[in-house]
Amino acid sequence: MSTRTGKQIIRIENVRKAWGSFTALNGVSVTFREGEVVCIIGPSGSGKSTLLRTINRLERQDSGHIIVDGITLDDDLKSIDAVRAEVGMVFQSFNLFAHKTVLDNITLAPRRVRHWNREKAEQVALELLQRVGLAAHAHKYPAQLSGGQQQRVAIARALAMQPKIMLFDEPTSALDPEMVNEVLQVMRDLAKSGMTMLIVTHEMGFARDVADRVIFFDHGNIVEESDDPRTFFSGPQHPRAQSFLTSYSGL
Amino acid sequence: MKNILQDRDSLTLIGAMLGLALILGLMSMPLAMLPAPIGPAAEQFSDGALTTIKLTLVSAVIGLVLGVVTAMGKRSHVAPLRWLADFYVWVIRGTPLLLQILFFFLAVPALLQDLNIPLQISEFWTAVIALSLNVGAYNAEVIRAGINAVPHGQIEAARSLGLNPLFTFWDVVLPQAVRISLPPLANNMVALLKDSSLAYAIGVVELSMVSSRVQAESF
Ligand SMILES: Nc1ncnc2c1ncn2[C@@H]1O[C@H](COP(=O)(O)OP(=O)(O)O)[C@@H](O)[C@H]1O
Ligand SMILES: [Mg+2]
To answer: What is the ipTM score, two decimals?
Structure first.
């Protein structure tokens, strides 16, 4: 795939993050290229979410460097807001604004941050809703939607900012099984469109099919990394990856 | 939706309260027809009720703003602002309203005089100051609870979309916090209406008399 040679878009250098004596990220270094779809897997508590959250500064790293699309994430608030506008994030618990309609959820940030007028923001929002199959629900409130629908709205909301990178933190973990596929399908389509995507997931089948690269996390470190997901899932090298994948052998 | 129903309940409550006060005010008309001693005093009675309404409305608005500002102060990253907000709420909630009213009617004028500050505050505005400071502290607690009840994930989502802290508060947190706080805020307003008659009663009583009585009792 061309993504092997795509230009670097995220560079993480020796990043550490600890809470008290607990080390969540233990000197992680990794780079991501434009257009790449990377799935991050690993046991609960291994630091996967923390890694994603340092990339848009929902968590501040204790040390190390993070460079996103040429912008170094330091304590300068302008650089943090600039990065956040380029990086979309989708959460496990959807986090839609409960008091706003689907349409207003999507148009809020483009209007406030990109300064689009209402007309343009709504036009883009409706196109995105079409894309995620929810055009008929534009005027509903989040509470009136199923979990799968809410998550698709959340994806549309993040895409409305026209980000260069999308972060997904276990986007299907809070969903009833019958709703998982509708969300994964939207993500597959997005991957095909060439979006740079970092996806924390326990959906091994999805990761095997869609990922250009798989990263396995354990105890705040990347312990295995593979450019060939099929080979990785059929025969991981690291013992922790082996035992972890065995517990998902329903694959 | 449940939220809208709650809103309506609260609005009805406030509406009914003001209506009641208005009826009390208008009651002077039939009362004025009655022979002495009721008739001549009816005017005073209605004046009192109307002043109470005015007092309540003005104090409610100031108290609401004060409540939001104090709730924000309690969440501020700036420690002295947090301390100030905490101290204010602690003092108001830790002392009886009667004491606060007396403080503003008796101690403050004396203090201003001692400090040679030529500032005369009318009875009405003295009552407004005492009442809005009082209700503001209670509102702050209620609004803070409302803010805390807004799921943190929504704040993170807003920030991850690039919204700055101000827009995040204005567009995401405050509307939901106010909605959550509305029923207890309405309760505070009802209490305020009752309290304002207290303040009014104290204000119209001959102040020198009150002060001499307080002095006689305290010393
Ligand atoms: N705000 C926080 N305060 C304290 N500990 C935290 C906080 N956030 C995460 N942690 C800890 O960091 C560890 C790694 O968390 P996380 O990155 O969420 O793991 P994962 O996403 O791989 O399950 C967890 O064990 C968690 O307890
Ligand atoms: Mg996680």
So the answer is: 0.93
